[in-house]
Amino acid sequence: MLAGSMFAVDSAAEAAQPLEGYDNYEAFRARVEELNQSELITATSLAKTLEGRDVMLLTVGTGEVHQKPALVVVGNVEAAQLFGTHLALGIAKRFAQQADQEKVHDLLDRYTIYIIPRPSPDAAEKCFATPRRRPVGNARKTDDDRDHQFGEDPPEDLNGDGAITLMRVADETGPLRSHPDDPRVMFAADRTKGESGQWRTYVEGIDNDKDGKFNEDAGDGVAFNRNFTFRYRYFSAGAGPHQVSEIETRAIADFLFERTNVAAVFAFTPDDNLRHTWTTGKNPRNIPVHIDADDLRYVSVLGKQYRQRHGGQEFPKAAAGSGSFSEWVYYHYGRWSLASPGWWIPQTDAPAAEADATADHNGNGNEPSKTPSYENRGADDINALNFLAAHDIDGFVDWTPIEHPDFPGQRVEVGGFLPLVRDNPPAAQFEELAEHHYHFLVDVLGKMPQLAIQEAEVAALGGGVFRVEATAINRGFLPTSSVIGYRSKLAQRVQIALDLPEGAALIRGPQRRRLPRLAGSGGTATHSWLFRADSDLPAGVRVRAWTPVVGEDEVELQLEEAATE
Amino acid sequence: MSFASNTYRSRFLVGALALAIAALVGVAFVFIARPAPADEPDEPPAPTSSREEAARRVQERADAAAANREPYRAVGGPKDPKVPVRWNRFYDYAEMTEILKKLAAAYPEIVKLESIAKTHGGHDLWVVTITNHQDGVPELHKSAMWIDGGLHPNETQVTEIVLYSIWYLAEMYSISPEIKRMVDERVFYLAPMMNPDSREAHFYQPNNRHKPRGGMRPVDDDGDGLFDEDGFDDLDGDGHITVMRVADENGTHLPHPKFPRLMIEAKPGQKGTYRMVGEEGIDNDGDGEINEDGDGYYDTNRLWPWLWEPEYVQKGGYWYPFSVHEVRVFGDFLMAHPNISGSQNYHNTGGLIVRGPAAAIDKFQKADIAIYDRLAKQGERMLPGYKYISQSNSLYESYGETITWRYQMLGHVSLLNETFAPFNFFGTTDAGYIMPRPIIVHEFDKYLLFDDAFSDWQEIDHPQFGKVEVGGLRKNFGRQPPSFMMEETCHRNMAFTLYHADQMPKVSVQSIDVAQVEGELYQVTAVVENDRIIPTRLAVDVRRNISPPDVVSIERAAAEPAAGEAKQDGAGQAAESGPQADDSFRVITALVSDSAWFPEPRDVKRNPQAVEIATLGGNSVKYVRWLVEGAGPYRVSIKSTKGGRDSQVSE
Predict the structure, then answer these.
(1) Is B38 near chain A, with CB under 8 Å?
(2) Based on C-alpha coordinates, what's the Rg of chain A?
(3) Could you give the 3-state DSSP secondary structure of residue A483?
(4) Angle formed by the axes of helices A430-446 and A293-310, to 10°?
(5) Do A244 and A165 share a structural domain?
(6) How many domains does chain A have?
(7) What are phi and psi of A188, to 5 degrees?
């Protein structure tokens, strides 16, 4: 029985074969366990999901890891982009392996890297379900069409190929036409050009609840990347009953809020601010919804660095997220937020004509078009088909007619791209992509703010009175926090303090004070104190400056020397 | 009815009104020596009573009264409650818990007490459920009213208002038929103390009347990595945090000429004698600021999901909606009870009946505002000095507060009373809007409270300021009613909230009319009604599909229902079990209309035996007409998430 069912899955997978070399939860945990063997990596669970999977955290670093400024890397923010997990783990592996290099060793001395490779493991695991389907959210049963029934009309695998693709119904009132160059591809008919429609498409399945709508409620769960507070879209599918409603969302938000040492977060997510930076603009009332102009300048520099490291081509601009993770990091968590999909389908030329000139993608014996039509519509799909062909990936299900109970007597075909093949690169690219991102993150760590006490002087004014004047400086590239991080106080501000010995009385204080934001590359702030010491002169005083997001520095000042000057 | 209470009426019987009165009072005739014969209406009764007879009658009445002694009650309250409680004082957590437990023990048939969670400080979060627990109707099948107090724990009297409401419903259930009806028809969920940890801190630790306003979980308010390290300091040791002044001949303030304890600002050109230096406290953590990181802080009324904004946009927002356990458990409770169709969130102060929206960028549906207006207009009558307002228009803006969330995301009519009005001091309208004018407070303190509300100025040594005087209004006054006004505050607020509850939707099957069309074909017309002000689904609910539509369904009544069974609980069971497989009964069509004549009715194409109705408006009916195959009797049921359920069987 068991063998039989496994065989059935295998044969379906053979036809589809997306995600070859990708880790399901079990394999993922094994890989995490392997990394956990490294002395530099500690794997812990932030929470157990609804289905009992662990939300894993890998802490990469040495010594007092929570006391050092930290960079967070989150993979697989969108459930379908499973490769983010592999890249995040690849980054962890590289830091651990290359820690004996001096540069990396130094970085791990100063910084901690928190890696959350698979934030919503229940959602990710749906990538491996049969029939295969592009997952949206976690295991919570939802009412996606808000009709008070939960998951009452999911898609069905009508052609039995183990995957949910599309179905198209021949219909002159439909919105789509076949592409002249490649009949697999369709594009929107333009009525103003006199084009009537040819097809109407639906997700593969039947109308289970006979309400005239197809597959409108698969009970798809709550998406990690739509469950955060910034620009949260109320009452929308995948967003959850309210913000931060899910176990994994809450666990990760709580973890990050507790970790005051986090300085920046990099996420593998469809939202992007490294290739297409967020825009500045006028904020409504006192609510920031646009990136601050000063913050943008710094993110732009990091974006340029990212493009150099990645080397990939341009890709279409991402739509503004709603309730997304990476915007939340910047606006509601007050930290530097760096976001990129990490991989996308590059511009790929059509494969050169093979010897077999009669080969036809649709297998229906027609001659392929001899001259290209220069039709631009559908170009994205044609590019994706070219990419799949170039990498020998069987990622498209040719349109094949079926009998559909809801369309008796009508021509209905099932076909289209296999789920997830356009979201994820071939596994062979993991190493190269992880390498690019690893180098970028090393670059980012190299640009972190560097807090130091530039100058500290003590002057004896007579009568046992001393003046201490100290200047804190930021010698790193980034400011000590983003503007929004400073304004929100979510990133702790730099503090400076004078530690006085017993018996000394402060004349001008305060003893401890929060400093303004220190600009990058030499931003400074100065503070001075007056105090009076006993006749029994203490040996010295100490000036400290610190913030968990940047680090600390301290200087000991000798009083005697000053007194004799 | 009480005999004793009617005896005084016998005096009138000698007059020309004798017959009319006699007809009204009926039983009072027992004590009348000679009832007027019906055939002699015009003849006045003869004055035959001798002194002895009169004395005997008095004695008889006294004996009868002694035998069946009814208490002489002040109307509107119990005289000898099973659980005696004084309503002119405040109760702490332990005292309140004891009262709740006693009430639950004394009235198990209507009062249920449950702890929905333990707080950070280890207290129980109590929720009381009041309804007729013995009628066999599932709780979720009755529409419910949520009533809470203490979301802002410093707003003391709201706990007593909710506690009083629990006590009143329990104690009056057997005395007042009207209270009994309300309790039988509805469910009341009451949470008297939403922040017990902080209420304890407000009572027993040095605080002012504004603090603590949220919970007691430590928060680093000033972003220095230290938690709650610089709160108030009770410098004069009186348990109250007041204000500090320093004598200064170049000062900005001076004592009021008539009420010298009150400090007023010097006029331009005038020199003050004091300088005000803030709330009682010192710089505990050496950062140059005083009292900048005290208990908490997150605002338990800024942590709800609707239009939530973070801490830096609005103080108190903390991490994210429901990021505090004590708030989340209440949110979960409310979300798990879709039968809640009204709620009251008590606060102080100002004398306001507040509706949302709380943010200017937000808006309510016009049709729903009209419902709010009708309810609150009555409230303004019942709560003298209280004004009905929309928060964003007339108060201040806020994000992520609970009442707008309740309306926008739970789809019910939620109100917030800011209890205790400046008007209440002297019954005048010149006492200030929301916050009373200081001079009014001091006048009231002097003449009605005999100086009990003010902590007099006392000199102390301050580590940062040197010689400082500490004094001001105590924490238990300024937002709270004084002792002698407490019960009235409780009762009037409760009465308005009960009025609100009584206007929640209540559905019923008003009538079923059956006509034979031909052979086995019958036309069944049902009238379903909601006879209260609030619709079964508000406009916001319909717009967002928050709760399911109402369903009016027909089935063949299986057997003769037992007398009385048809009306109440049969409804739920019939609807749950669904239509029975019955080949000889089939619903062919269903039409829905607002009119008995069915002009252009809605033709229900899907599932005509269970007709969905988007909403049943306030004080309105809908007509549903089926064509069915198969003779009756038929059972027509209506099921509404927020309006309850009903069913009836046709003749």
Answers:
(1) no
(2) 29
(3) helix
(4) 140
(5) no
(6) 3
(7) -70, 125
